[in-house]
Amino acid sequence: MRKFWEEIQRPYFAVAPMVGNSEEAWRRLSKRHGANIFYTEMVHCDSFLRGSRNPVKNRWYTTSEGDRPLVVQICGNSPEVMLEAALIIQDHCDAIDVNFGCPQKVARKGGYGAYLQENWKLTGEIVKVLSSGLNVPVFCKIRVFGSIEKTVEYAKMIEEAGCSLLAVHGRTRDQRGAAMGFASWKHIRAIKENLRIPVLSNGNIMTHHDVWRCLEYTGCDGVMVGEAHLHNPLIFTGEDRSCLEIIGEYLDICMEFPGSADVRHIKSHMFRLLYNYFSMNPGKQPDLDSCGSVEKFYEFYLSLVEEMRSMVDDGRSLEVYKMKSRPILTAPMAEHCGKSR
């Protein structure tokens, strides 16, 4: 089995699997700006098997040559069903990731994601069946328990079952929505200290500086960034560029690789990239909402470029075009992340 992650220069910079936001076009953009491991959005195995089984052009995700290294995230609660789906998918990716971390109500209803935390036997069986039955490595993504000791034992069990790389979101299952709070880097550091396989730290990373603070404190092999990456896809490099430059680059990718993003993806990404702009110009958002094709999005983008040029000519500030991650934390992170090593 080829351990492709051993061929990638560390630290690993992974773009988290995000429903509606991890499409091929965004992965290709991310690859140009420092990311080196890419995840698809979550594929529900039951639904996948009931629908189109062509992973290259499936409603769950698209991929094509050059879209690598690619990790396809799957979810479910039946080892046999998950293996059946993964066997179809494996020829079109470099690894399969099992979602043991989704805390949403849909996961509770379906009995997957973080709602498998109480069933260690089934969790271990899923990893064991997949790792022994596939030709590609099996990764896992988990959330922590309140207890560091219990979290470490859980992670060790998953490693022993055959997991090759573990991504750890440092929040508990109940930390979501208004109760999100802080991710615990202390939990993640303890996991890294007790596992032999690579570990990715996920949570509390909102700036380029946070990337390196996290790596220093946790000792992890890399970081995984989700929401903050949507607001600033340059978070891994620390580049200082306007959101319009990135939007133009993203739309060029969408047109160069037809089908790599749909209207839903493009609208979601442009809204986040223009977060500051819309905060100051709320009357402009309906113009974005009305776009129904790549061409219409591009027309809207060009109108913003012309607007920016006028601002330059008038000597006005371009702060509105800066990309900034939306702040979600309001207390000192030191309480939860500790001091650097």
From TrEMBL:
Annotated FMN binding lies at P17, M18, V19, Q73, K141, H169
Keyword hit for Oxidoreductase: yes
Membrane spanning stretches: none
Keywords, ordered alphabetically: Flavoprotein, FMN, mRNA processing, NAD, NADP, Nucleotide-binding, Oxidoreductase, tRNA processing
* Membership in a protein family: Belongs to the dus family. Belongs to the Dus family. Dus1 subfamily.
Active site annotated at which positions?
C102
- Functional note: Catalyzes the synthesis of dihydrouridine, a modified base found in the D-loop of most tRNAs.
Q: Which GO terms describe its molecular function?
A: flavin adenine dinucleotide binding; mRNA dihydrouridine synthase activity; tRNA-dihydrouridine16 synthase activity; tRNA-dihydrouridine17 synthase activity
Biological process (GO) annotations held by this record are: mRNA processing
User: What are the EC numbers?
Assistant: 1.3.1.-
**This chain belongs to which protein, by name?**
tRNA-dihydrouridine synthase
Give the organism the record lists: Encephalitozoon cuniculi (strain GB-M1)
Q: Which InterPro entries match?
A: Aldolase_TIM, DUS-like_FMN-bd, DUS_fam, tRNA_hU_synthase_CS
| PROSITE patterns listed in its UniProt record | UPF0034 (PS01136)
**Catalyzes what?**
a 5,6-dihydrouridine in mRNA + NAD(+) = a uridine in mRNA + NADH + H(+); 5,6-dihydrouridine(16) in tRNA + NAD(+) = uridine(16) in tRNA + NADH + H(+); a 5,6-dihydrouridine in mRNA + NADP(+) = a uridine in mRNA + NADPH + H(+); 5,6-dihydrouridine(16) in tRNA + NADP(+) = uridine(16) in tRNA + NADPH + H(+)
Domain DUS-like FMN-binding span(s) in chain numbering = 15-277
- Required cofactors, per record? FMN
